[in-house]
Fold this sequence. Notes:
This protein is mainly α.
Amino acid sequence: xxxxxxxxxxxxxxxxxxxxxxxxxxxxxxxxxxxxxxxxxxxxxxxxxxxxxxxxxxxxxxxxxxxxxxxxxxxxxxxxxxxxxxxxxxxxxxxxxxxxxxxxxxxxxxxxxxxxxxxxxxxxxxxxxxxxxxxxxxxxxxxxxxxxxxxxxxxxxxxxxxxxxxxxxxxxxxxxxxxxxxxxxxxxxxxxxxxxxxxxxxxxxxxxxxxxxxxxxxxxxxxxxxxxxxxxxxxxxxxxxxxx
Length: 244
């Protein structure tokens, strides 16, 4: 957290220096003080829009994690079924998000649901990919030892393979967490009546660049905060796998 704060201070100083030295038009690059003034002028409005985006990204992270974990375990439990499912997962991930977003708005409307689905899709692949990789890479010596016991396929999966693959799940969550705001905002760009993405679109159309930067600053804080939250929540999952 201290490293992030230090980097943020350096970035703000450089930003202010560029604004002073090159003096670009304010609609191109506002100063940090002008962006801070936006927070002073519209604290309630920005808070209200932030809460909408926070709700969407947290819901998307939760739903995406659930389906990612279920899919990864399903692929490990039923390898033949996994060979059929995996190509569809790859195709879904290969589609640009801006291609899918208009369809989601058309199918689920302009409300929160379409944004949650968008965030779910973006978060799903890192989770299922990292967790599946962990399940596939169970130590062969451990699997040979299990084969000497009377443990069933399901017991081996539940008691050995899944616990040993938890570091992979944690890695997937760490990758997916900063992507949650992206999923919510992309959905808001395409069609919404609230949220930080909606604020950015409306402010950009009016050339209110200071408001755009304010919304971007909030999104950056949300992404970092969500990553730190995931780090804290997932630490007990793989406490035995020490980082080096």
